[in-house]
Every structure is written in structure tokens, then in C-alpha cells.
UniProtKB/TrEMBL annotation:
It comes from Sistotremastrum niveocremeum HHB9708. Residues 10-180 form the Diphosphomevalonate decarboxylase-like N-terminal domain. This is Diphosphomevalonate decarboxylase. Residues 194-355 form the Mvd1 C-terminal domain. Belongs to the diphosphomevalonate decarboxylase family.
Length: 355
């Protein structure tokens, strides 16, 4: 019997309304809806190959060349099980070969730092699910597959779509209404672009999973964020995206990054994901915007930080060269800065290590 194999890749997505908190840790159901922009396919991405063959004796996964244990009941084990369940449906209804009974081997590579707050778990689990979907030739929609990617890592459900994507928190206890939907395709707003400043590529001290759980258990500010702050922002930023209103998009993006890092700080013991360089980049963007608004212009850039010190700066393409120059001028030691979502060449002499 021939070996079956498929390779796919999935880019990272960087949230502008942050997911932080679970109401169900096993099913990975969030305490609030979130919204992100998926980077373009050729930028920061995970590339995953999966194989299945009757000779395999167990499911195995290698991440960046190192084997990871697949523990029973783990998120990885759940994703494998759920994908097999979808394949069995196709086998039963369409008489496809019963390959779901064989074990699967998976090899995945990230072309950017893993577990450093650049959404590797998002690209990783989205690539895992889409590669097994290709291996199994599944007919399911991205939203249906996002229900499974969500159970690998919450943020992964949004990387099944390109462009502007919302993860609807849902209310059902079985999680069937907690999936990703497209808000607008990438082509709707091609002018928007992102610069990623890798302040540190080290593994973060507190994983997203552990950090958000501690926030749910100890932060009173989180309740305010979930109930009063995020619902309104979801509505407003969705409209800003539909209207291509960068000023509002930028204002909400920065406010929500600040709010997320405030609830991290309101956690016991407090979590500090941003460092001095991250904060200095915030000040730089604030000053850059102030110079524009003082002259009667709009906001020109929006910073956002995930669970790590690395900055993502969203801006319209026309301002990207200026922003890259600015960052490289003030932070010549920055390990890398690049502009996915339509990369601009970096200026000569920029001390960057392009990832
Ligand atoms: P990040 O900020 O990079 O998303 P997380 O703490 O959320 O960091 O998740 C990191 C974990 O995600 C890794 O330790 C690994 O278990 C998983 N992961 C990362 N990349 C992949 C991948 N390509 N395939 C499968 N799992 C991955
Ligand atoms: C700050 O999706 O990595 O990046 O669901 O536990 O795997 P798990 O967490 P993860 O958390 C991402 C948190 C964030 C915000 C976001 O991407 O929305
Ligand atoms: Co993650």
C-alpha cells in the first residue's frame, strides 16, 4: 500500500483584539471574542508535512527537527483524534479507503522563533490541521477546521483564514459555536502592512496557556475587560476594517494591546511580557503619531504586543519605509525588523537578521 503524504503551510496571525482567558481549558473556549490579521503566506509561517502508512506503529511529531511527545489526552492527541473522526465520515459516506486506522507522522518547521510571543502556536496548529486535512482529502470548510485547530491552540483557529479574521467566542458548552470567520479578505485592504521587530527570540518565561489561566484565576481587571471593553471594541474595529479607517483601527489596536498587558500585570503574581525595549518602541510610535496629528494629520502607525516583548507595528504601506528607518535608527541593535504583508526592502546598513 502506498504511503500518503501532504505538505501545507500556515502563516502567523497577530491579534488586534487579544484573546486572553479560557472559560473551558480542555475544549479551549475563550472568555472573549478576538480579531486578528493573518500575515501573508511567504512571511512568518509554519510548514508541515504529514504522512500516513500502515507500517507506522504510533503517531509521532517532530518540531524543527526535534521529536515532541504526544501524550494521551494532550492538545496534539485531540487534534489527531478529531481529524480521524472527520476522515471516518468521508470513508463511511463515500467509500474512501480506510486510512484513518493508520498512524500519522508529522514534521513541522517554523521559519521564525518558536514560543517567543510571535504566535508560533497559531501557525503551528493551523498548519497541522490543514496538512492532515489535505492528507485525508477532507471537504470541510476553514471554519469547520478552525474548530479543531482551536483545540490545539486557541489563536490557531484564526490562521485558517487569510486577511482579517474574528474568532467568535460562542456560548455553547460543547464549543460548536466557537470558531473563526472571515471579517474581510486580504484584498479588501491591501495597503495595510506590518513591521515585526524581534526584540528577543528567546522562549518566553510564562507560556500563553499558563499565563492566561493565572489571569482568569486572579485578575479582577479581566472581568471588566471581558464584559465592558472587548465587545464594544470588536464592533468598532470590525467597522473600521470594513471602512478602511486606519485611524480608528490604530487607536483600538493600541488600546487593546495596552489593556491585555494591563490584565497580565493585574495577575498574581504579575506577568511582564514587555521589556524596556518594547516600551521604548511604544514611546517611539506615540511620538511618531504625535508629530503627524500635531500637523493635523492622522495616526500613521499602531503597535501591538502578544505574550512576549516583540513589537508588531501595523501601518499603511506608504509609511512603512519611514517606520523601518525610524526603528532601525533608534534600535540599531534590534535583531530583526521586517515588513510582512507586502515586504519593503530594508534600508542598506540596517543591522538586521532577517528571519
Ligand atoms: P507563541 O507565542 O510562539 O505562540 P506559545 O506559548 O503560545 O508561544 O506556544 C508555543 C508552543 O506551540 C510550542 O512550545 C509548541 O508546543 C507549539 N508549536 C509551535 N510551533 C508549532 C508547530 N509548527 N507545530 C506544532 N506545534 C507547534
Ligand atoms: C496574546 O493561542 O497561544 O497571542 O490557546 O493556550 O494555546 P493557547 O494560547 P495562545 O494565546 C494567544 C494569546 C495572544 C493573543 C491572541 O493571539 O489573540
Ligand atoms: Co501562542
Amino acid at each position: 500500500m502506498a504511503l500518503y503524504q501532504a505538505t501545507t503551510s500556515a502563516p502567523v496571525n497577530i491579534a488586534v483584539i487579544k484573546y486572553w482567558g479560557k472559560r473551558d481549558t480542555k475544549l479551549i473556549l475563550p472568555t472573549n471574542s478576538s480579531l486578528s490579521v493573518t500575515l501573508d503566506q511567504d512571511d512568518l509561517k509554519a510548514t508541515t508535512t504529514s504522512q500516513t502508512d500502515p507500517s507506522f506503529s504510533k503517531d509521532r511529531l517532530w518540531l524543527n527537527g526535534v521529536e515532541e511527545e504526544i501524550k494521551p489526552g494532550s492538545r496534539l492527541a485531540t487534534c489527531f483524534e478529531e481529524m480521524r473522526r472527520l476522515r471516518r465520515k468521508v470513508e463511511q459516506s463515500q467509500g474512501e479507503p480506510a486510512i484513518s486506522q493508520w498512524f500519522i507522522h508529522v514534521a513541522s518547521f517554523n521559519n521564525f522563533p518558536t514560543a517567543a510571543g510571535l504566535a508560533s502556536s497559531a501557525a503551528g496548529f493551523a498548519a497541522l490541521v490543514s496538512s492532515i486535512a489535505a492528507l485525508y482529502k477532507l471537504p470541510n470548510s476553514p471554519s469547520e477546521l478552525s474548530l479543531i485547530a482551536r483545540q490545539g491552540s486557541g489563536s490557531a483557529c484564526r490562521s485558517l483564514f487569510g486577511g482579517f479574521v474574528a474568532w467568535q467566542a460562542g456560548t455553547a458548552t460543547d464549543g460548536l459555536d466557537s470558531y473563526a470567520v472571515e471579517v474581510a479578505p486580504r484584498e479588501h485592504w491591501p495597503e495595510i502592512s506590518a513591521v515585526i521587530c524581534v526584540v528577543s527570540d528567546h522562549k518566553k518565561g510564562t507560556s500563553s496557556t499558563a499565563g492566561m489561566q493565572r489571569t482568569v484565576e486572579t485578575s479582577t481587571l479581566l472581568q471588566h475587560r471581558i464584559k465592558e471593553v472587548v465587545p464594544q471594541r470588536m464592533t468598532n474595529i470590525t467597522k473600521a476594517i470594513k471602512d478602511r479607517d486606519f485611524d480608528t483601527f490604530a487607536r483600538i489596536t493600541m488600546a487593546d494591546s495596552n489593556s491585555f498587558h494591563a490584565v497580565a500585570l493585574d495577575t498574581e503574581p504579575p506577568i511582564f511580557y514587555m521589556n524596556d525595549v518594547s516600551r521604548a518602541i511604544v514611546n517611539l510610535i506615540v511620538e511618531y503619531n504625535r508629530a503627524s496629528t500635531a500637523a493635523g494629520g492622522p495616526l500613521k502607525a499602531a503597535y501591538t504586543y502578544d505574550a512576549g516583548p516583540n513589537a508588531v507595528i501595523y501601518a499603511l504601506k506608504e509609511h512603512i519605509p519611514e517606520i523601518v528607518n525610524l526603528v532601525s535608527h533608534y534600535f540599531p541593535q534590534a535583531e530583526s525588523a521586517r515588513s510582512p504583508l507586502g515586504a519593503e526592502p530594508l534600508p542598506a546598513g540596517f543591522n538586521a537578521n532577517i528571519i
